[in-house]
Amino acid sequence: MRGLILDYGGVLTDHEQGEEPPLVGALRAARRHGLRTALLSNADGRWSPPPEWADLFDAVVTSGEAGWAKPDERIYLLTARRLGLTPADCVFVDDLAVNVRGAAAAGMVGVHHRTPAETLAELHILLGI
């Protein structure tokens, strides 16, 4: 695996008030290990990460900008392309099972986010981070 793609709402927003989201730490670890990273969200229009996260993503893809929404296979393929990777090189994390199934149909490894601890354990197994 050479890429990590995360959803925003329900994944990066899964944290206690005032603390850094645990999955932001996973993004930082992925970057240190040379992985390409992306944010894929069904947000309307263009979305930019908070300034303190700007260096965490090689690509940011939103459904409003792309014209397709998860779980449409095309948005996953576009995200992989923007990372310069094949879908088979990517792990995708989302809190909605339908979106994880869409990523798997596009050829990615899907991780269904339920809790930060479970997702971090899964990413450790898949990516060694």
TrEMBL record:
<protein>
    <submittedName>
        <fullName>Haloacid dehalogenase</fullName>
    </submittedName>
</protein>
<dbReference type="Pfam" id="PF00702">
    <property type="entry name" value="Hydrolase"/>
</dbReference>
<dbReference type="InterPro" id="IPR023214">
    <property type="entry name" value="HAD_sf"/>
</dbReference>
<dbReference type="InterPro" id="IPR006439">
    <property type="entry name" value="HAD-SF_hydro_IA"/>
</dbReference>
<dbReference type="InterPro" id="IPR052898">
    <property type="entry name" value="ACAD10-like"/>
</dbReference>
<dbReference type="InterPro" id="IPR036412">
    <property type="entry name" value="HAD-like_sf"/>
</dbReference>
